[in-house]
Amino acid sequence: MSVLVVIAVAGLVAAAVLVVAWPFVSPDRGEGEPALTSHQIERIELLERRDALYASLRDLEQEARIGKVDAAEYEDERRRLRSEVAQTLGRLDALDSKHGSEQDETALPREG
Q1: 59/11 Cα distance (integer angstroms)
Q2: Distance between alpha carbon 91 and the CA centroid of its chain, in Å?
Q3: For a 10 Å CB count at each end of the chain, is N or C smaller?
């Protein structure tokens, strides 16, 4: 009797593994997502950099409002961050210009 139980449990386990693994091994699973192009990767990196710089500027403004940063330090850091934002936006614009009006999933919506 215990041999039959072991065989039944093994059969159930095999069936469960097959059901769970089938989407990954099925010949009908379709094509995977296409890899990002170097343009898309660079654009995503620039957008992330831009967002991080804007967050740093917001944090700096908040720290200045509550008096955590003195005026001279605030101006120096603000100037540095704004310069980095300008450079990042310039690189982003140059990248977009280089690739024309190519729209992809990382493209910003254009205002019309």
Answers
A1: 59
A2: 18
A3: C
CB 46 within 8 A of CB 93: no
Secondary structure, 3-state, 35-95:
CCCHHHHHHHHHHHHHHHHHHHHHHHHHHHHCCCCCHHHHHHHHHHHHHHHHHHHHHHHHH
Is the alpha carbon torsion for 107, 38, 93, 57 positive or negative? positive
36 Cβ neighbours under 8 A, 6+ residues apart: 44
Cα(60)–Cα(82) distance, integer angstroms? 11
Q: In this structure, what token pair is assigned to residue 107?
A: 């493209």
Q: Note down pLDDT in tens along the chain; length 112 residues.
A: 688 889 999 999 999 998 888 887 777 776 767 888 889 999 999 999 999 999 999 999 999 999 999 999 999 999 999 999 999 999 999 999 988 645 454 454 444 3
**pLDDT at position 25, please?**
78
- The answer to whether the beta carbons of residues 23 and 29 sit under 8 Å apart is yes
